[in-house]
Design goal:
The structure is a homodimer. Chain A is an alpha/beta fold and about 350 residues long. Chain A contains 15 helices and 17 strands. In chain A, the strands form five sheets. The first copy, chain A, has a five-stranded parallel sheet with strand order 3-15-14-13-12.
Chain lengths: ~350, ~350
């Protein structure tokens, strides 16, 4: 996938830089982890520091010190999932800033304008997200609104792009847990297109995992083969492996950095909780198969000490390791796909990950 | 100054790695900042994770991932200044661990044995520290005890060193704010020697700054010229500049990392509080004269955003900048001393630091 700021190999895991920084990682850490595409949050950057400030400081790339591709989400997920009151109309969503309580109004046009000011390589269309358990009428209503919003957002984006802009806009497929709605969403979104990428949203929001797999399996044969598919907000190592088997190319999730801050490290032998007393005297690295700075420099014993002593260095050593783990995982999946071996590779990977010494 | 793990140019600022990590900095950050000597705390490492654990994990250098010189303090300052009950006898100090409340006993011999197990290049003798306002009788009593403890610690260190050890032990001069006691301390410490380094302790503990300067001025002509002088727990940029004029070679202080975590950055134009709203749109670096990664990559506006958004990256960008600032300051002082220009350099430095745009 070629984007204005560089090339992205798929499958690809995007670290999440919610507020214009991937928590506890510097841009150098991201480069060292092999990150090729980073996500930032339109909602968060809009409420603080504001897209005007980011624009005056040279745009999101310069602001963050990140010169490779960036993707911004539309804010839809945040305004529908964050705490606080909101009012949805066909025009848009009025919501309350979690920073200062001020009333804000986001429309499909504003979401596109904010992302244009931020200047990411890829912008996402503003969507209406419903919880995993939403009934069909609710999911239908949100889907219809998402489709109307998509047309408005795409129109505004095309206007902004008349100059020399290179940013592309991607739609988000909704439909909740209702497979017929998902398929209808796809047909109608493709009719509005063409698109350079397609996102599947509203999954991993409380529904059973089987629903996510079924949705992906249903969509897969109907998706345009050359257009990258982005499964939003996913996920854990096992989710990535399962979703790639179902045709997904792109992922984002806060789990590797959040888990890293909590002391959980992904390893080839399964997740490991570095706080456990068992690691106290252990001279081994977190993961002997990993090439990250944490694994090539520090022992489990030292990392456990950092967490026991509540030292900041602990957070910043586990978080980049977990990001590196997922990026290495995507590289392994790519190699397995190329060699036509994905199924056998998956079986081997899963056996070690679920039956390893750490689990 | 040549130590087992490398050469140290003086004047030298030692970043403080209290618990075996300089807060918010990785070993790579320390190397990038130009750190040549790092301090770790015997008291803290003894109570957690314990010198036995550090020893089993290969000693303090390997534990921390730091291959340049290390100095460990003796724990004297901590047991006399940390909260909690303690009982002082001539034998040693019984105190309560701040981690688990367990009763511990530190003697001059134990302090040396712990530091031997940690394996730093330089160990410090166990001393009895009194507050800045201690009367002469109290300071005399603590000084006599410190001298008796020095003899015992030196004897134990010599026994341990019979093999092939390269660690050296340095004494700490006490005497409170009483100049006659300080001079007596020096004479009696030198009589116990010879030493490869001498520390001045018990300053910067609440006494007026004039007392510190007077003490240094009195000691200076009587100190052996070839032996490095270490002023413990100091300090701020202006303290370093003033103390180097009075013959000091080595410093340690938590201020650069603690201030960095609070949003204060040292700059050529004086300290700057990055939280101030004035920095919101400012595209300039913290300090245009600085070559650190923070200053060459990020704007004040971005750094302010990180602190406003309580992002971890803010702490880890300001702390290494402040460490780099002090290390650059020592390099400038060294150059000024070599060119015989220290007084004029000091006047220029002070003018800009105290009258710069940020103050």
């Amino acid at each position: 996938m070629t984007l204005p700021h560089g090339e992205v190999q798929t499958p690809c895991f995007m670290p999440v830089g919610t507020q214009g920084t991937v928590r506890a990682l510097s841009p150098n850490d991201l480069r060292a982890a092999g990150a090729s595409l980073v996500l930032a949050n339109t909602y968060h950057l809009h409420v603080r520091p504001g897209e005007d400030v980011v624009g005056r400081l040279g745009g999101l790339h310069r602001f963050m010190g990140w010169d490779r591709p960036l993707l911004t989400d539309s804010g839809g997920f945040q305004v529908f999932s964050l705490e606080g009151s909101r009012t949805v109309s066909d025009d848009g969503v009025e919501f309350q800033s979690h920073v200062d309580g001020s009333r804000r109004f986001l429309t499909p046009e504003r979401a596109v304008e904010i992302q244009w000011a931020l200047g990411a390589d890829v912008a996402m269309a503003f969507d209406h997200v419903v919880p995993g358990g939403a009934d069909e009428a609710t999911a239908r209503d949100a889907l219809e609104r998402t489709l109307r919003w998509l047309e408005r957002g795409a129109r505004r984006h095309a206007e902004l792009k008349k100059g020399d802009g290179t940013q592309t806009l991607w739609p988000i497929l909704q439909g909740g847990s209702h497979q017929a709605l998902r398929l209808e969403a796809l047909d109608r979104v493709l009719a509005i297109g063409p698109w350079t990428g397609l996102a599947v949203g509203g999954l991993s929001v409380g529904e059973p995992k089987a629903v996510m797999y079924e949705t992906l399996e249903q969509l897969e044969p109907r998706l345009p083969p050359a257009v990258p598919r982005y499964l939003m907000g996913v996920g854990f190592p096992e989710d990535l492996v399962a979703a790639v088997a179902r045709g997904v190319d792109l992922f984002d999730c806060v789990a590797p950095t959040r888990n890293g801050r909590n002391g959980t490290a992904y390893t080839a032998d399964g997740p490991l909780n570095i706080r456990n007393a068992a690691h106290r005297d252990d001279p081994r690295p977190l993961d002997s198969t990993c090439d990250c700075e944490t694994c090539t420099t520090f022992s489990r014993g030292y990392l456990r000490h950092l967490f026991a002593a509540e030292e900041l260095l602990g957070l910043r050593l586990l978080s980049p390791h977990n990001v590196r783990y997922l990026i290495r995982l995507t590289a392994e999946m790519r190699a397995a796909i190329r060699s036509g071996d994905y199924e056998r590779w998956t079986a081997d990977w899963r056996r070690r990950y679920t039956q390893g010494e750490t689990t």
